[in-house]
Amino acid sequence: MGKRILIVGGVAGGASVAARVRRIDGDAEVIMFDKGPHVSFSNCSLPYHLSGIVENSADLVLMSPEKFKKQYDIEARVNSEVVHINRDSKKIAIKNLITGEQYEESYDKLVLSPGASPILPRNIAGIDSQHVFTVRNVVDIEKLNGYIVENDIQDVAVVGGGFIGVEVAENLRLAGKNVSLIEAQNQIMAPFDFDMAQILHKEMMDNGINLILDDGVQAIADDAIELQSGRKIAAQAVVMSIGVTPETSLARDAGIEIGVTGAIKVDHNYLTNDKNIYAVGDAIEVYSQLTHKPTKLALAGPAQRQARAAADHMYGMPHNYKGVIGSSVVQVFELGAASTGLNEKTAKAADISCDFVYIIANDKVGLMPDSNPMHFKLIYEYPTGKILGAQAIGKGNVDKRIDVIAAMITMGGTLEDLKELELCYAPLFGTAKDVVNYAALVGLNLLYGRFQQVPVTKVRELVEKGAYIVDVRETGEFARGHLVNAVNIPLSELRDRFDEIPKDQPVYLHCRSSQRSYNAVMALQNAGYANVVNISGSFLGICLYEYVQDCTTGREKIVTAYNFK
Amino acid sequence: MGKRILIVGGVAGGASVAARVRRIDGDAEVIMFDKGPHVSFSNCSLPYHLSGIVENSADLVLMSPEKFKKQYDIEARVNSEVVHINRDSKKIAIKNLITGEQYEESYDKLVLSPGASPILPRNIAGIDSQHVFTVRNVVDIEKLNGYIVENDIQDVAVVGGGFIGVEVAENLRLAGKNVSLIEAQNQIMAPFDFDMAQILHKEMMDNGINLILDDGVQAIADDAIELQSGRKIAAQAVVMSIGVTPETSLARDAGIEIGVTGAIKVDHNYLTNDKNIYAVGDAIEVYSQLTHKPTKLALAGPAQRQARAAADHMYGMPHNYKGVIGSSVVQVFELGAASTGLNEKTAKAADISCDFVYIIANDKVGLMPDSNPMHFKLIYEYPTGKILGAQAIGKGNVDKRIDVIAAMITMGGTLEDLKELELCYAPLFGTAKDVVNYAALVGLNLLYGRFQQVPVTKVRELVEKGAYIVDVRETGEFARGHLVNAVNIPLSELRDRFDEIPKDQPVYLHCRSSQRSYNAVMALQNAGYANVVNISGSFLGICLYEYVQDCTTGREKIVTAYNFK
């Protein structure tokens, strides 16, 4: 008789443990239990049913219990809730949610993969209304979509601007709905810094999303949401996506240790404090290789790796655990937005000394069709130059750049390493000096003190205090929109016009994307100017940042005309 | 007075040295000399003028001498050939190709960036005809395109299936021409192994290119090419792209040392044997960090990095030289084809002990629009598991996967590292277990001796000798095309049909893409079968390989019907 391995929960964590165990051991008895009717579905594809990109919700289900049985000799019991673990007798109690019947099964090894459930704050009036939805599984998305279609709902409010909120909002908008996205923080998409998030805010607004920041939900009525500000938002359907919380009650009741983050605590083999019980997926606490602290990470890739490592450990195979960095990507209408590692906020919160580069570079050779600017922010440790994280937003291959950075972080790479990286280049795919090489070069220039920079977020302050700002774009570009009070001295005339530029005060420079202004900075420094500062992100960055702030706060403009080209 | 820096040749190497020097040193006198009328143009974009993707050839020119002067205070002298170097007096002799005038300029530092010129074998009759072209610069591509347009040429022969040959052939085909691509070797695109090259061959043929392999040019007549086989190919225009040779005559005449590869020898600061003369770009010899041998690498990215390092060295700034790995990508109609590091051929030629993984995996979640199979081959050192190289071909983001591998190679990564890599995932961008993670997992299973594989290139031999081959796809899939003599036992029935499978001989397995057959291999091994072998690449790989071989050699079929889905 083989081992008896019971698994609580399917999808990326549980189903991957089951499949891996079967490949290692033909004799093991493997049984998966899931509360819902499906044991294997494409979690991350759920929102795409709302727009019809995934037309048929049945396609979201990847493997049926029958197929698990036939292909892998794995038993999958659906509509089966595991309600109790008896660690002493090594038995679990299961409730059949269809028949109500309860029974027990014994295990040699138990794997917990219960996932995380959407947070529904009890203090919001109306939170239990039938038109309030969450999105966790196929049943949820079918209910939400069914409700919208059957009732011909036009106004939908999505509460919470994380991955699920953004994807749900986008797909509902693609389906032609009036969508409000309500976020209590001052930005959506926490993996991105505030400056980078503005690009996403603009894309949301440009695509007709009613974006509401810095405001929370007070109460939910039948056809409107009342916000904490008192504002009312029309909504005949509400999707709550403010976050998830690890499902720990089963583990907690059995005396399984819970970590400081509130998720199940595991060791580097994904063993809990019970040597016969493993835990994987969104319910567990993982270790950040960057902050050296426990953290939570609800992503499919890590869950699969955890599952494999847990299965391997049952059979004595070792696992080289490095800790997580957290890489993710999301599509926001025409933009891709990807990130990995730490951002400026999380690095500072972890008290890690860091600096950053923000560049806007062509994603491919400008002559090629669909060449577009890519916004790229690179965070590195100061003074070591060790790469800590990056964020990329643009129409081009943001995931490519972020995956390269993820590889560099994992391998302990520095700016020097990144600068030398030989990436593949052809005009249709990138530029000879790729965005990531270029960011490393700028970072090294900063690290070695070759020039100074100020971020776009500080430009308003500079303008208000009357700083000397030189716009080195050509006069025609300047005429199409510029900072109020900026002086226009094109790079092509700079060397002949040094005498117009004061030496007794800081000189701030920008062009369109920072390349010309960087050359101007170096020229001024070489000409003896002591205090020259490049505005990182340059006019493209300033425009974006200021435009979004103007839209969301209604404040006075400091750019004469927006010019995003 | 600043340094006087003279540069022979512009584009990626020379122009980058000039710009970097200017940023470091406002006082340096910088003069670039170029034989041609352009000092800065998008080399790699040249072929795209033939299809009209770059409609206006003037757009290929990036910076005019006037702009170099105004923006960077760099003098660019075009139509100016440097004909002699006097190392003792530190002077060069320049010939003005317009006026015929010859004069001298003195230097403190001289940079050679003469590039490489297309090879034109003198022994081919007709090689000097006016309808024989090469593609090196803007003038060349204007001449070629002009000739085709003015004479309404319909039949063009492209000789040589490297990057330029393939891109020229594709762009001419996109322009509606009848294009023959003639390659003397048995495959195009040397960075790819023979098995991977078949995918490119099929794409060429599917798009109407007359692909001729294993045949060379004997003679060029006015409207046809005669091949060494005696075959005649209609061609009223011929593009020679069989390779390039470093331009070394100027250096050689001046006693600059030439390396074993025939290119200019430089140290790790790109200094030649003369401490006042640097050399960069396609004319120099570089060091392979993988074979630990000198090599040549005619690519734009490395040229730019060499340029920066040389300029930095002039000003005492150090450069961390790691050696090259060689990363590249090319578009072949609907397919991208990228590679980095060593392939099976080059690793074996360098006597490096290696093994490989060949997988065919979805580039994104199957439910999403434009999800396609990606062919991926990973080469690793045996027995260390160190990653040596990779090749990716498909409609999806091949460059992303190869850039990740390039980063891993540069950082000394192994299969274990690659397996754990946290890449960003969303259904529109990839799969939770990305192609590269998946390849690492397969590689580790091989490395640890968990299963055996045989490549698609050996399947014919297996079929011919009557090997026992099990196709574990479902019966419906089998019916649409299969190997002759293969036994169909679907994975879903395998565990009930073990007794049909002999234990006394090797059992070879395949499915569509290798995932099911891998599970079948493990199931058989767990059931006590001692000699079970997975066919790497599986039916998709077999189909492709055999189809192309059948087309090019006309041999007997071993697949009942091709099924590339």
From TrEMBL, chains A, B:
<dbReference type="Pfam" id="PF02852">
    <property type="entry name" value="Pyr_redox_dim"/>
</dbReference>
<feature type="domain" description="Rhodanese">
    <location>
        <begin position="463"/>
        <end position="544"/>
    </location>
</feature>
<comment type="similarity">
    <text>Belongs to the class-III pyridine nucleotide-disulfide oxidoreductase family.</text>
</comment>
<keyword id="KW-0560">Oxidoreductase</keyword>
<dbReference type="GO" id="GO:0016491">
    <property type="term" value="F:oxidoreductase activity"/>
</dbReference>
<keyword id="KW-0558">Oxidation</keyword>
<dbReference type="InterPro" id="IPR001763">
    <property type="entry name" value="Rhodanese-like_dom"/>
</dbReference>
<dbReference type="InterPro" id="IPR036188">
    <property type="entry name" value="FAD/NAD-bd_sf"/>
</dbReference>
<keyword id="KW-0285">Flavoprotein</keyword>
<keyword id="KW-0274">FAD</keyword>
<protein>
    <submittedName>
        <fullName>NADPH-dependent 2,4-dienoyl-CoA reductase/sulfur reductase-like enzyme</fullName>
    </submittedName>
</protein>
<dbReference type="InterPro" id="IPR036873">
    <property type="entry name" value="Rhodanese-like_dom_sf"/>
</dbReference>
<dbReference type="InterPro" id="IPR004099">
    <property type="entry name" value="Pyr_nucl-diS_OxRdtase_dimer"/>
</dbReference>
<keyword id="KW-0676">Redox-active center</keyword>
<dbReference type="InterPro" id="IPR050260">
    <property type="entry name" value="FAD-bd_OxRdtase"/>
</dbReference>
<dbReference type="InterPro" id="IPR016156">
    <property type="entry name" value="FAD/NAD-linked_Rdtase_dimer_sf"/>
</dbReference>
<dbReference type="InterPro" id="IPR023753">
    <property type="entry name" value="FAD/NAD-binding_dom"/>
</dbReference>
<dbReference type="Pfam" id="PF07992">
    <property type="entry name" value="Pyr_redox_2"/>
</dbReference>
<dbReference type="Pfam" id="PF00581">
    <property type="entry name" value="Rhodanese"/>
</dbReference>
